[in-house]
């Protein structure tokens, strides 16, 4: 069986992300994103070029999670697809591209974060229920509850 692949992008969140809901209650995460570009010189060095800016959207539960997790300036990696969309700018209808993220996460090479390996049910339990359960259950060793990463394997 062949390896399944999908388009992906990396960049940084360039605007304050927005979470909106359509008439059916479906969540929509929107952020203007930037992508850095470089030119390789003949001597092997790189010259940084101006970044390009694009629209990124995400829908559903993922959109709600991303709205809680991302702020302007965060570095990310996203998996999804590019689609054209029409909108009105200064009274003129125009077509632009947007990246529709199926998955969106912080770039582990550029972001320090903590991994929470507790079962999903335990992470999503209401606070009162979680507090009650934690008093009666044995606690995992700290090295099992979360792992510190600095994005460089340390």
Question: Can you walk me through this structure?
Answer:
This protein has 154 residues and is of the alpha+beta class. It folds into 2 domains: 8-111, Nucleic acid-binding proteins (OB fold (Dihydrolipoamide Acetyltransferase, E2P)); 116-154, no CATH class. 18% of the residues lie in helices and 46% in strands. The strands form 3 sheets. It has a 5-stranded mixed beta barrel. A hairpin with a 5-residue loop joins strand 4 (38-40) and strand 5. The longest helix is centred in the last third of the chain and has 10 residues, at 127-136. The two termini are 34 Å apart.
Placed side by side, the strands forming the largest sheet appear as: 1-3-6-8-7
Structural class call reads: alpha+beta
Regions with pLDDT < 50 over 5+ consecutive residues?
A: 134-154
Instruction: Work out the number of β strands.
Output: 10
Percentage of residues in strands: over 45%
C-alpha geometry: globular
Output the radius of gyration.
20 Å
CATH homologous superfamily of the largest domain?
Answer: Nucleic acid-binding proteins
Name the helicity range.
Answer: 10-25%
Q: Write down the overall mean pLDDT.
A: 86
Assembly of the depicted chains:
single chain
N-end to C-end Cα span: 34 Å
Give me the strand/helix succession.
EEEEEEHEEEHHHE
**Total number of distinct structural domains:** 2
CATH class of the largest domain: Mainly Beta
CATH topology of the largest domain: OB fold (Dihydrolipoamide Acetyltransferase, E2P)
> How many helix segments?
4
Q: Main beta sheet: strand number and arrangement?
A: 5 strands, mixed, barrel
Give the second-level CATH assignment, the architecture of the largest domain: Beta Barrel
């Amino acid at each position: 069986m062949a390896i399944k692949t999908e388009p992906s992008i990396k960049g940084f969140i360039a605007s304050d992300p927005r979470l909106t809901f359509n008439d059916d209650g479906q969540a929509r995460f929107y952020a203007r994103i930037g992508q850095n570009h470089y030119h390789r010189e003949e001597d092997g060095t790189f010259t940084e070029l101006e970044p390009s800016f694009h629209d990124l959207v995400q829908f559903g539960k993922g959109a709600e999670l991303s709205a809680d997790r991302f702020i302007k300036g965060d570095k990310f990696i996203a998996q999804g697809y590019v689609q054209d969309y029409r909108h009105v700018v200064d009274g003129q209808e125009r077509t632009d591209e947007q990246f529709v993220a199926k998955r969106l996460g912080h770039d582990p090479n550029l972001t320090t974060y903590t991994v929470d390996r507790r079962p999903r049910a335990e992470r999503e339990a209401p606070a009162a229920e979680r507090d009650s359960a934690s008093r009666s259950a044995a606690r995992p060793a700290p090295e099992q509850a979360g792992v510190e990463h600095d994005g460089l394997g340390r």
